[in-house]
Amino acid sequence: MENLTTAQQTQIRILIVDDDPMMRLGLEQVLGDDERIEIVGLAENGKLGVAAAQDKKPDLVVMDIAMPELDGIAATQQIKQELPETRVVMLTSHDGDREVIGALSSGADAYCVKGANVERLMSAITAAMEGATYLDPQVGRMVIKNLQPVSPAPPENLASLSSRELEVLQLLVEGKSNTEIAKELFLSPNTIKTHVKGIMNKLAVDDRVQAAVVALRTGLV
What we know:
With 221 residues, the chain is of the alpha/beta class. The chain is 52% helix and 13% strand. It has a six-stranded parallel β-sheet with strand order 2-1-3-4-5-6, sandwiched between helices. The mean pLDDT is 84.
């Protein structure tokens, strides 16, 4: 792990959370071989990951997204709420808009795609421990594309969002699909689709990712 700074004299205590036993084993071996890293725990789902983080209080968590019991995005939110100093590196096979926005909104410090070379993971860990944000290059290109300047919505449009639209927008920022939002708010998917369309019109954006960006930039959610 050559690109860890020499200033990091103490071991980085890392918790690995992934539902794939082979991935857990592989990460434990790769990271554990570095004398600057101490693996303090392994967890097979988000729920157990949160419990392990509460118990071990690691410096950093390597977190998968799609897991049973509790997914990595929800688990990261809980860990960040209780242990704000703990860094979280998302390591996942998912690189879609929904997962990336959801992960970053949850407070993740870095986002890596599985299958990339080990050096990228090392770079992500280094960046996270230094307080920076790291995005895998292929994810970074997508985020940059969606973060291109958009015409700001008129203030009166922002103020015109209804309480229900704000609820939908909050869940949209968290990366939830229309079906998931509908289930959480006890509404039909078609109703949610209508709300999302209304939100995009009022925020003057073309898609849900841009809506999430505007919501985060303006402090709407």
